[in-house]
Amino acid sequence: MSPDTQPAPAVTGDRAITEEDVRRIVREEVERAFRRDPATRTAAIIASKGTLDWAYPPLILANAAAAVGMDVSIFFTFYGLNIIHKDAARKLKIDPVGNPAMPMPVPIPDIISSLPGMVPMASAMMRSKFAKKNVATIRELLATAQEAEVRLIACQMTVDVFGYAQDDFIDGVEFAGAAAFMARARKAHVTLFV
């Protein structure tokens, strides 16, 4: 906007309200709203998929929520446990047959995609694509989440069903049942199932 088209500052009494005044007022209103409803600062995310492409969304969303000051928890259940497993680098793969929307450098028929060696190739290709775009690795996203005090919660029932031990997972992971997580999620302002 040019100076002649900008609206004149609002005047109350004999004092003009500046842009900084408006920012301060909005900031105070937001802070008051947070004090009235602490759930507006809480996010609960459920991670249920254990492939490389599905490991990114819950971690990126959790880190973004933590960055804006939210109290965040991620509940890892079923194959989502792969994300927090110590052997995640080997467990997190991508299958081009199971992901028909996966961008490939050249069109590849399903029959070729199902040949042995295609899963490691597709996984390496996806990791390379992320690296070229300077996207953090899963390990880096987990470390960032832990630094931001995002709670990483493994589903105890799934851990038991799959025969895992608690020391199969990265340090800092908590273990709880679905009911315990639901008690937290029902009070959250944002609840996502990924």
Structure description:
By secondary structure, the protein is an alpha/beta fold. The chain has one domain: DsrEFH-like (Hypothetical Protein Ychn, Chain: A). 44% of the residues lie in helices and 14% in strands. The chain has a five-stranded parallel β-sheet. The protein has a two-stranded antiparallel sheet with strand order 1-2. Helix 2 runs parallel beside helix 7. The longest helix has 18 residues. The radius of gyration is 23 Å and the shape is globular. The model has no long low-confidence stretch (mean pLDDT 85).
Distance between the termini: 42 Å
Name the CATH superfamily assignment. DsrEFH-like
CATH fold name, please? Hypothetical Protein Ychn, Chain: A
Strand/helix succession: EEHEHEHHHHHEHEHE
CATH architecture: 3-Layer(aba) Sandwich
Main sheet makeup = 5 strands, parallel
| C-alpha geometry | globular
Q: What would you report as the Rg, rounded to the nearest angstrom?
A: 23 Å
- For the biggest β-sheet, the strand order reads 6-5-4-3-7
In short:
It contains nine helices and seven strands, in the order ββαβαβαααααβαβαβ.
List the helices and strands and how they pair.
Elements: E1 11-12, E2 15-16, H1 19-36, E3 42-47, H2 52-67, E4 71-76, H3 81-84, H4 88-91, H5 110-113, H6 118-132, H7 138-147, E5 151-155, H8 156-161, E6 174-176, H9 178-185, E7 190-193
Parallel strand pairs: 3-4, 3-7, 4-5, 5-6
Antiparallel strand pairs: 1-2
Helix pairs in contact: 2-7
